[in-house]
């Protein structure tokens, strides 16, 4: 994801800490867009999914737009991921 964002000249911060007490994988600060990359190892169990949904809820309440991508989607269709990001820019 990092390489693709850089290639498209989309400014971002990586591993960006938010005041809510957690760290975003990528943040587009000007647009307040959080990009989360969910590897199957960490994000495919019901407990983690529930926790991620709650994080998304908190972020949205704080004015962030949240975009989540599964690791497989990133590996197989990074261009599609970038298109999706550009649609909300």
UniProtKB/TrEMBL annotation:
It holds the Pfam family MTES_1575. Residues 4-88 form the Restriction endonuclease type II-like domain. This is Restriction endonuclease type II-like domain-containing protein. The lineage of its organism: unclassified sequences, metagenomes, ecological metagenomes.
